[in-house]
Amino acid sequence: MASREKITPAFAPDLEDLRAWLQKMLAGLRFVELVTAVLALIARMRDLNTELVAQLAHLRRARPRSETLRRLERQLVLPLGDLTVPSPLSLEDDTTTDEKKKKRRGRHPGRGAPPAHLPRVPVFNRVPPELRICPQCGATMTTVSHSSCLVLNVIPARVFVEERLDETVACPNDDTIVSASPPPQIVERGKLADALIVEAVCDKYLEHLPVERQCARFARAGVDVAPQTLGRSVAAAVDLLAPVARILHDQTRGPGLLGTDATGIPVLDPDAPEGIRNGTMWAWTNARWVTFFYSKVGDADSVKRFLGPDLARTVQCDGTSITTFLERTGGKRPGCWAHARRRLVEAARGGDRIALEGVRILARLFAVERESTCAGDGAEQRRARRLQFSRPILDELRAWIERQKAIVPPKTPLGRGLGYLERQWPRLLLFLDDGNIEATNNRRERELRRLVLGRKNWLFTWLDEGAERTADILSIVATCIAHDVNPRAYLHLVTKLLVNGWPQAKLRELLPDRMLASHPELYVGDPDALPIPATTRALAR
Q: Mean of the pLDDT values across residues 425-431?
């Protein structure tokens, strides 16, 4: 019993307690128990140190890290020597890939043709006059033909001063004078034109270029624009678009399969203890509708505020406990197989070959999803494919989990991965019953990437109002991209319509899908691919 005495915590050892315990054991001549307890303490500290070193190495790895099975196997070969042997399939694939590379060498297919829907601007490259004289007879040679060479080009941005001349007319018979009213602007009597402001909005939220950096670019062109002036103008433009964003929120909340994920957003607040605090930005999707929803705190109440009174919804998300209330109200929470695989990948990167077996099983599950996407399956076809091919793979994975649970300690990386699979298993299986449910929550993570990339550049937002503006403009941009609409051209067009008094009762006509039907030139691809009549497509040319 003495060997089971608690000496000192392995995470934070107390040297005084350890010294007192050693003196007590030596005074009692309990050498066997002393050696056993010390060895146990050292072994526990060794295990903790090994785990911490693995976690530190994981955090220091360059991002992004691939979770592809073949690359994971290659990574394990180098640090572990003969502990891990690449599968014959991976070696065969590597050999095949090398052979393909050798065959393609020296046989470049040539550059592809530029998009057919782009306008062609002819630029004549003429023969110099001194070479147009025939060296044989001295006659002037005439044009026979032109050889065509197509290259992509761009017209650089140009800053200019627009001088508006407001006309004033007077009656020749009396003193009546009438002056032209100034046209409406985003910022009334502002020094920045609407087109420049919309470009600044696009540069900030599409290209992640902070306002200060845009002003520095203007300065290099010899134009002095104060960051405060440009920043307030950008805010005014986003406020003008806010009604459209609210309609997008309603569209996203409508019937259909919802998906969500969240990330933090730094908020600059003078009243905060440290001058800055963290808010939460939720990304919600429903088919092609995307909404960013800001909340001061990322709790269950913020989810309820977005969903409204109807909480019995199907919402795909990760394993967070914030949305468990949905199941209590009759809703469903499909799980994410990417999150389940990620934990096994982390364990495999730490050298756990057992975890690699689970990754190999999951690789076959993802292969089924990839085949379904390539085949263009509908919801019912996808469901039938999953029942036929994915169900046996999941049965095999479940049996593997049961075998490993009995022998793997729960606090190891693999043990935590198995625990996640065990807890989320009923939610992870929901995608078998509905072909509309995705196997992963990756789409929401991709939508949040728009915010994360911008956050790395502009660092924070000003107060909650700035965060809400960010949510509004990102909702519009993300929905445009989901509908294959050019977001920059869309923002220019819709802003112009709103500035010129577009009726509030017809705001729904400004949504990206309806604007695309009436303005096919907003389409990002070939207008011939638009599912609209040919007469309407002709307007896009």
A: 94
By CB neighbour count within 10 A (0-12 exposed, 13-18 middle, 19+ buried), where does 25 fall?
A: buried
Domain stop point among 442, 459, 488: 442
Mean pLDDT of 342-369: 90
Distance CA 243, CA 248 (A): 9
Residue 419: how many other CB atoms lie within 10 Å: 16
Closest CA to 69 of 99, 93, 51: 93
Which helix (H) or strand (E) segment holds residue 497: the answer is helix 487-499
Tell whether 175 is covered by a domain: no
- State mean pLDDT over 502-516: 94
Measured from the Cβ of residue 488, the count of other Cβ atoms closer than 10 Å reads 18
Average pLDDT, the chain: 85
Beta-carbon count within 10 A of 318 CB: 23
For residue 296, give the amino acid letter.
K
The range of the structural domain enclosing residue 438 comes to 333-442
Average pLDDT of the segment spanning 171-190: 90
pLDDT exceeds cutoff 90 at 261: yes
How distant is the alpha carbon of residue 171 from its chain centre? Answer: 62
| 469 shares a domain with 435 | no
Residue 516 CA to residue 527 CA, distance in Å, equals 11
Using pLDDT thresholds of 50, 70 and 90, give the confidence band for residue 534.
Answer: very low
Radius of gyration of the chain (CA): 32
Element (H, E) at 261: strand 258-268
User: Are both 438 and 468 inside the same structural domain?
Assistant: no
Instruction: Assess if residue 431 is contained within a domain.
Output: yes
Q: Which helix (H) or strand (E) holds 290?
A: strand 289-295
DSSP assignments along 370-388, one per residue: HHHHHHT--HHHHHHHIII
Asked if residue 344 and residue 285 are part of one domain, the reply reads: no
**Listed residues 390, 416, 442: the one ending a domain:** 442
Residue 356 lies in a domain: yes
- 408 and 422 both lie in a single domain: yes
| Whole-number pLDDT of residue 11 | 62
Same domain, yes or no: 433 and 486: no
CB 484 within 8 A of CB 523: yes
Structural domain count, the chain: 3
Confidence of residue 150 (pLDDT cuts 50, 70, 90): confident
pLDDT-above-70 percentage for the chain: 85
